[in-house]
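DATA SHEET
Item: assembly model
Revision: 1
Owner: S.N.
Input lines:
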Amino acid sequence: MLNKRLICLIGIPALIAAAAIAATSGVMSVQIRKADIRDTPSSLGRVVTSVAYGDKVTVQSQDGAWMKVSAGGQSGWMHSSALTKKNVVMTAGPNAQTAASSGEMALATKGFNSDVEAQFKAGHKNIDFAPVDKMEKIKIPTSTIREFVQEGNLGAKGGAK
Amino acid sequence: MKRALLPILIGAAILVGCETLNKMTEMATGVGAAAGVITTDQAQSINKSTAAVGKVFESVTPEQEYYIGRTVAATILSANKPFDSKAMTTYLNTVGQYLALCSDRPETFGGYHFLVMDTPDISAFAAPGGFIMVSRGMLRCCNSEDALAGVLAHEIGHVELNHALQAIDKSRLTSAATVLGTEAAKNLGGKDLADLTKTFENSINDITSTVMNSGYARKFEFQADHAAVTILSRAGYSPVGLQSMLQQMEKNLKPGGHDFAKTHPAPKDRLAELAKAIAAAPSAATHSVERQKRFHEAMQGL
């Protein structure tokens, strides 16, 4: 009787966990320009490797907003905001057209993009994009942020979960 | 009579375009079909187009959001010149990018970037995708790194909650529903690219006029303050810094000014709302001499 209860106690959470993994497993696409795969489910984790826009990753499990993924023979953690379940098609063409009508895909190179920006710039010479281009180049390395956090006695909760 | 109902239903569907509307339209089309005013096929078609409009906001991909954000930021920075200080910019981005990592949305298409605007006005803007600009006047309301973190976390909150994208007039969404899935560049004809650019331009105008002139709805500002408290707590900063910044802002704001005096709820209203958020999320923040030292060093150039 006790054993049965024990099996139930262990079994039910295991089933729930298995279902959660099943629900989150599968292939997802990178929806940002460049994303890091880290060794721990934390934004301050060490970077194992990086993946680019449109790359596919295989999801193995999930911890809150963090996905345990594998890509190119390496595995680690990515924040879910970098990923989409939609297939990202990088080039336009007949397949992309079908994808557009299916409504299931985020299509890179479609809608507002660099060509639309160029067209906008041509009509608005008074708007200067140079400060934005300069602003975009500012990227503080994770290692610098980690030191900054440590020196400032911050990071009690170790970044976004 | 039958002919009149169809455009009205489609028009209503296009104008509102939200989850509630989906339900309302389903009910309305159901009634219409049952009464024989419209055919079942027509009803299904209306329901489908309503769902499409409802999804428009979600269908703005991070890449498209990034291009909207770049142009919004360029427009803001054409009216407010950047303050050129490498030390200040590096410090601001270190605090800001750390806070962004602690948010619910640490990853955007092009990442989070921060800049100081060279104006004594008290202002701060968050363009879609994470282009965040704060004025010298706003920095002068801060007396600690925790207070500065409060300002930046509030702006990150606006990005995380997609507030700027929601400022785009709903009427744009009718064309956006088509154009966002439309092929651009070489695959587009001249007129299509022109139409897409027009929708883009109108969307930019909606956002810049909201953030620079009219301001967001009060509830968006309170939501951003709530998001800020969460981010600050996770990062290890004290949300009390945001309170002291607002107290200082109240003293520094000039009545009738074109900055936060016009676009934001009064600091005392934000303070009252903020107190609730802080009470709900007790902070385990620690004090640090180093934090205060580096803050004062960075602020010297101002």
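QC remark: The two ends of chain B are 68 Å apart (CA to CA).
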